[in-house]
């Protein structure tokens, strides 16, 4: 079976870690910074980082319209942490000029769990992914406050400083998590996404 080609949006954030995780589950993974590079991929990862910075860089590198078009055409996309914010239709506590791709019908609260010093780790079970709960790493992470009728809640964190929160969702070919699986060595979520890309 030919390895799916999956790009990692390489404007800011955990690019190298996501590339390594994708390669580890059999994908042909590569950084993507330009529209021509986006044309060559079957799926895209939007990594963690700083969502307002990513939003600005998407415009500077002229990537907004190409990514919007590919999402509308059904390209699978996975967003982790800031990537989740970039995929949301509504962002609370963001900057007024911050714009994402509005792919998943959800309301996300930016930096919901607190600042860098409030980062934490907790177990999260993900629907559709077998095995033990993920050891999830939350760093200045968002949470999901509301989802639309077409959004499947895949995971919640119950052992967090603020109680029970939605931290993993899927809508069609779009997947998002509040946490950073690329930092843990647990490749199950990346394998789940690669399988989604193959199916698409």
From TrEMBL:
CDD domains: GATase1_PB
Residues the record lists as binding L-glutamine: 49-51, 110, 139-140
Presence of the UniProt keyword Hydrolase in the record: yes
Pathway involvement of the protein, from the record: Cofactor biosynthesis; pyridoxal 5'-phosphate biosynthesis
Assembly behavior: In the presence of PdxS, forms a dodecamer of heterodimers. Only shows activity in the heterodimer.
General function of this protein: Catalyzes the hydrolysis of glutamine to glutamate and ammonia as part of the biosynthesis of pyridoxal 5'-phosphate. The resulting ammonia molecule is channeled to the active site of PdxS.
Descriptive protein name: Pyridoxal 5'-phosphate synthase subunit PdxT
Organism: Micromonospora rubida
Gene behind this protein: pdxT
């Amino acid at each position: 079976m030919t390895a799916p080609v999956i790009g990692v949006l390489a404007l800011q954030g955990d690019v190298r870690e996501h590339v390594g995780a994708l390669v580890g589950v059999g994908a042909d993974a590569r950084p993507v910074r330009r529209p021509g590079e986006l044309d060559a991929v079957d799926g895209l990862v939007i990594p963690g980082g700083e969502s307002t910075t990513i939003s600005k860089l998407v415009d500077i590198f002229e990537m907004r319209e190409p990514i919007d078009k590919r999402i509308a055409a059904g390209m699978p996309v996975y967003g982790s942490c800031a990537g989740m914010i970039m995929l949301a239709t509504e962002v609370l506590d963001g900057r007024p000029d911050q714009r994402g791709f509005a792919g998943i019908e959800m309301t996300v609260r930016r930096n919901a769990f607190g600042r860098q010093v409030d980062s934490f780790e907790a177990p999260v079970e993900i629907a559709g992914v077998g095995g033990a709960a993920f050891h999830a790493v939350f760093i200045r992470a968002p949470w999901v406050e509301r989802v639309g009728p077409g959004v499947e809640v895949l995971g919640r964190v119950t052992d967090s400083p603020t109680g029970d929160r939605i931290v993993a969702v899927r809508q069609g070919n779009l997947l998002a998590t509040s946490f950073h699986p690329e930092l843990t060595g647990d490749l199950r979520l990346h394998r789940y996404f690669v399988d989604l890309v193959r199916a698409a």
